[in-house]
Write a structure and sequence with these properties.
By secondary structure, this protein is of the alpha+beta class. 43% of the residues lie in helices and 14% in strands. It contains 23 helices and 21 strands.
Length: 717
């Protein structure tokens, strides 16, 4: 059974002067826990002053912050972003007064209430980039560990392996029906693993340092029996996961050695990560059933029935089920059907998430996970049972951020693109139907995007800051979660500048966990949403962190499994972005070119406007093809050597174009662009930019061409 953190939370609040209540926890123990939590051995509650908060992401890598949070309640709006001016003293006093009221009245939801009300203030002047919430939560957890152990701590970790292949290896054209349910299942499973761990060791949510992206890290007390109990936990859970998922999904667990407040925190973190990698490589030693399956055939092959969505064999006839009817009827496992119908379909209107313990009696549409926890999603607030609020913030109930439960729907206009006679208005739209969003106006193309934060592993191991601490790790993790699982939904609701439609009407956030993103939709909206994500993340991190990604632009019927792999390859290309032999990253790869968000994307966007203006004046689309041909010729010459004929060909072509009648107003622009692309590419030649001007022009030309081509001119991109 989980412990209740209120006793130790109240002890910390009392020491901070935010709660007028005597507690059983000694002041000396709370002070020691606070010093340990914030990494400051001389921290004292006496004369401590709560102050304005600087963003922790901006002070990573030893940087100085020039922004401040305003002392507001936690929200998923632009107003919660850090500002360039500090808040006034009165607004801080007002927020502190609200916290005092909450501390006295919150009851069992104290931890959630503190999250809402204390996340925008700093614990003290000396550590004004450490959020008050993470300080209180981590101090309470360490105080609990000190009371219930031998004075030392362990850091435990767990992770799910196989997430990417589990998400992407979907073979059916009905992949869209499963992916959202499958994606939410991964969050559900990750949360259940952390929940089971907390129950096993009688810990609370306050002990969680990080829980996202298929993994968790939890502080726990050290005592004589902890390692034996840990082995028992690991053995039980690994067997349960394997029973359900075989080799498709697996989980690993590890624990650090016992440590004290004097142990270097990054070293603890690195040691745990190494232990997790070792556990992953020694998976056989904890699972005899896996060893047997690796020695003997895992699949039966031949005529064995397969799940028509996941392509997994269904070796047990009792696990066969069906989705659809008539010509749309397909065979699936019961588990796949539950993911589609209980999770995927209900997710679109879900606002509340209820979880019941293994073995509890339930009635209705519940989903049972491998650990036995039973889940149900509700559109209305459930009566008579506890719940979590989904993608909204409340101080009275626990809330969970999940990236993208809003998905596009079939309507009266686009339902004609459905390939199923069973489709109804309001059903989740299929990927190929999304690609037809502007039927007859632009070419039908699907965009598949994969993105993640650059160098995040290095940040956690080397660049966490000058005063590493568990509270700081918790704050960094929570800040990333706020953006990628919370604010991402706000971006998803934005209007796409080019189409005038909301991103949520033409894109689907398949997965958003930790710092990883997987988004599918109409290519133009996916591209512009990627740009919005990058711009907003730059603001959220104060320009201190960057994000790179790959966008595959594909025909509407292209298999999502292969498209995800292509997007992954493009993401790797973006991650290899070099300037002066330095890996800058902060790039996006699309139309076969890796473009730096800051140094080159603005150039591409301006060139796109220039080319669009040329077409309006009277140039035909052949200029776009010529640009592409010259860029391809240059790449061939760079690859194989030889004479750079592309230079003379481009000068000749653009010279002739500039002499055409009726385009006198842009003739000088045409010549200038040709010069920059051939002889006068000074930014590239002086190594201020990694990509030649011609390739930026090629990217802009392909972008304009794809926007202006119609379906009659179909061509693979």
């Amino acid at each position: 059974m989980k412990s209740n953190p209120n006793k130790h939370l109240k002890a910390v609040l009392s020491q901070l002067g935010l709660l007028d209540e005597q507690t059983e926890v000694s002041n000396a123990l709370v002070t020691k826990a606070a010093q340990w939590a914030c990494g400051k051995s001389d921290f004292s509650f006496e004369d401590n002053q709560i102050v304005a908060l600087r963003p922790v992401l901006e002070t990573l890598k030893g940087k100085t912050s020039n922004h401040w949070f305003q002392p507001n309640e936690l929200s998923l709006t632009l107003d919660f972003f850090p500002k360039s001016a500090p808040p006034d003293a009165n607004s801080i006093k007002k927020r502190i007064s609200e916290i005092e009221k909450v501390a006295a009245s919150a009851g069992d939801n104290l931890l959630t209430a503190l999250h809402v009300h204390t996340a925008s203030l700093a614990v003290s002047k000396d550590i004004d980039d450490l959020p008050l919430f993470d300080f209180i939560k981590t101090t309470a957890a360490i105080a609990h560990c000190l009371e219930n152990g031998n004075g030392q701590l362990h850091l435990a970790g767990g992770s799910i392996s196989g997430i990417q292949s589990y998400l992407y290896d979907i073979v059916s054209k009905r992949a869209g029906k499963l992916l959202k349910g499958r994606s939410f299942y991964l969050q559900l499973l990750s949360d259940s693993l952390a929940e089971r761990f907390l129950e096993w060791f009688e810990l609370s949510d306050a002990h969680i340092v990080y829980s996202s992206g298929g993994g968790f890290y939890i502080l726990m007390p050290a005592h004589d029996d902890v390692k034996n109990r840990f082995e028992d936990f690991k053995s039980e859970v690994i067997k349960k996961i394997y029973k359900w998922h075989g080799i498709n999904l697996s989980c690993e667990f590890a624990i650090s050695g016992a440590f004290t407040e004097k142990t270097d925190v990054p070293k603890i973190w690195d040691d745990l990560l190494q232990n997790l990698n070792t556990a992953k490589n020694q998976r056989l030693s904890h699972n005899s059933a896996l060893l047997k399956d690796l020695i003997f055939p895992i699949e039966q092959g031949g005529s064995t029935l397969r799940d028509e969505i996941t392509n997994e064999e269904i070796s047990d006839p009792s696990e066969i089920d069906f989705i659809g009817s008539g010509v749309d009827r397909i065979a699936v496992t019961k588990f796949t059907k539950k993911q589609v119908e209980v999770l995927g379909k209900n997710l679109k209107s879900a606002k509340f998430w209820t979880i019941k313990q293994p073995g509890e009696t339930v009635a209705g549409d519940w989903f049972t996970d491998p650990l036995g926890y039973q889940h149900r999603l509700f559109s209305q607030r459930p009566n008579g049972m506890s719940f979590k609020v989904l993608n909204a913030i409340e101080a009275q109930a626990p809330f969970v951020f999940y990236g993208g439960n809003e998905t596009p729907r079939f309507n009266e206009e686009n339902i004609k693109f459905s390939d199923s006679i069973e489709t109804e208005v309001g059903d989740p739209i299929t990927f190929d139907a999304i690609a037809h969003a502007d039927e007859g106006k632009t070419l039908n193309r699907l965009g598949i995007l994969r993105m993640d934060v650059d160098n995040l592993g290095k940040i956690f191991s080397d660049d966490i800051g000058s005063r590493p601490s568990f509270a700081r790790y918790a704050a960094v993790s929570r800040s990333l979660d706020w953006f990628f699982k919370g604010y991402l939904n706000t971006i998803h609701a934005e209007i796409c500048p080019s189409s005038g439609e909301r991103f949520s009407e033409r894109t689907i956030i398949i997965y958003s966990g930790g710092d990883d993103l997987f988004i599918v939709g109409r290519w133009l909206e996916v591209l512009e949403m990627a740009r919005s994500i990058q711009t907003n993340f730059e603001k959220w991190s104060g320009g201190n962190l960057t994000i790179s990604g790959g966008l595959a632009i594909l025909p509407d019927k292209f298999p999502v499994m292969q498209g995800a792999k292509l997007a992954g390859e493009k993401e790797k290309t973006a991650k290899r972005y070099l300037l002066c032999e330095q890996k800058l990253k902060n790039a996006v790869c699309f139309f076969d070119n890796a473009i730096h968000w800051e140094k080159e994307m603005k150039v591409v966007e301006e060139l796109k406007k220039t080319l669009e203006r040329w077409l309006k004046v009277g140039l035909d689309n052949s200029i776009l093809k010529k640009i592409d041909q010259h860029a391809v010729s240059r790449k061939e010459q760079e690859k194989h050597g030889g004479s750079p004929r592309w230079i003379w060909n481009m000068v000749y072509d653009f010279g002739r174009v500039a002499q055409k009648r009726g385009i006198e107003s842009i003739a000088h622009e045409i010549r200038d662009v040709a010069k920059k692309a051939t002889f006068e590419d000074f930014q590239f030649n002086e190594k201020k930019r990694a990509v030649p001007f011609l390739y930026l022009l090629q990217t802009a030309a392909r972008w304009v061409e794809l926007e202006t081509r119609t379906i009659k001119k179909d061509k693979n991109t």
